[in-house]
Amino acid sequence: MALLEVKDLEVCFGLRSGAVKALREINFSLERGERLGIVGESGAGKSVLGFSILNLISRPGYISKGAVNFEGQNLADLKPHQLREIRGNRISMIFQDPMMTLNPVLTIGQQMVECLLAHRKMRESDARKIALQKLQQVQIPSPETRLDQYPHELSGGMRQRIVIAIGLLLDPDVIIADEPTTALDVTIQAEIMDLMLNLCEQNNVALILITHDLGVVSEVTQNMMVMYAGRVIERGPTKEIINDPQHPYTQGLMNALPQMAQAGQKLNQIKGAMPPLQRIPTGCAFNPRCEYVMEICRHNLPDSTVSGNCRVACHMVAEMKREQAMGDEV
User: I need a surface site. Which of 18, 23, 166, 312 has the fewest CB within 10 A?
Assistant: First the structure.
């Protein structure tokens, strides 16, 4: 049994004009120690998926269908007090902005000790020792001093390391990292991602990395999912998708990388923009932006097709597979 299994997950947001679907037919599993990347443009539904796993979607959002099974237990059905035993304890989440995560009027030590005492029966002195160990683990210099400092006294990279340390406080089985390096400069980004990778490998912690950076995904994760308009349109081993993207949208993301353009030329880009939830196109949601669009793409939602070790939701890929199968029979 997988550590975490998401089955047919659907999330809606209730608006005055009616409910709109933010996530549709999300299916994936996560094994202990596995590192999964979730990529896509802003508005693809990546962060909504991360919040949905922990049932942190607030009204007017709600899980309308499906299950999020953690060790066989559906988190979507748990009551608030039951979820509190899972959140932070068994599944931790690292958010984009550490200043939104850390309380500005409490010292780092107070926040870490408070987190431990909320989930574990221990003395405050023992909790402080564990907090100090975690700061050392994430390579914070002078950790004893940092425990008594406030968030505003630390640099952005330091604050992000502290957020990671808080995520590791209770030795979780899964960490969900939502754009953990967005606000940091490139050199600090690399340090933070190397740190997270090493910590996950050392502690056999499963990682869900939500990002728009394909370079980070290729270096850190073993498997990846590409999302578009609330749906997974390609998933499989990271190396296989990076080296041979099959969905036109994934190909567009790869071609948009700076290193794919020649010196002096404009960067490649996918024409158009992600559609708003209220106006998702009929058929394949990517069809208005796709250079390979066929008539069937404008009317029918593509099923997920097996292609090598990947699954791809694309009519063109499905047609190519059918033609290949017919050729093999002949």
Answer: 18
